[in-house]
Design brief:
Layout lengths: L8 H31 L7 H68 L1
Helix pairs in contact: 1-2
């Protein structure tokens, strides 16, 4: 979202926070639905047992989701650093070629004017 034209950095940051919040709320909803589906066939459970199992299922699901998101975020940071280093190298290489080409053109012009 921060790459959208016309957005300020603060606005993009807020947009990313809202998007992250909504994503996490959706993750919670999915975990709660899956927990309810998990205990549904267990007719022998009391209401409190059912609630406890659902709570543990949701907590476990959210912990795993958080670990997955942290792993993905770490990988994204790693890739960003790698791409920035590659881009910097490529940019320096391109500037070098342009400067060498300009120097060559100047040399050719100087030699042709000297004749």
């Amino acid at each position: 979202m921060s790459d959208m034209p016309g957005r300020t950095t603060a606005g993009a940051g807020l947009g990313n926070e809202v998007e992250g919040y909504l994503l996490w709320q959706a993750t919670i909803s999915v975990a709660e639905e899956r927990a309810a589906e998990f205990v549904r066939p267990m007719d022998w459970l009391t209401t409190s047992q059912r609630a406890e199992i659902e709570q543990r299922y949701v907590a476990d699901s959210l912990q795993r989701a958080r670990q997955d998101l942290e792993r993905i975020a770490a990988r994204c940071r790693s890739l960003r650093g790698e791409y920035e280093r590659r881009y910097r190298t490529l940019r320096l290489r391109c500037v070098g070629w342009v400067l060498a080409s300009c120097a060559g053109l100047v040399l050719v012009a100087a030699v042709s004017l000297a004749r």
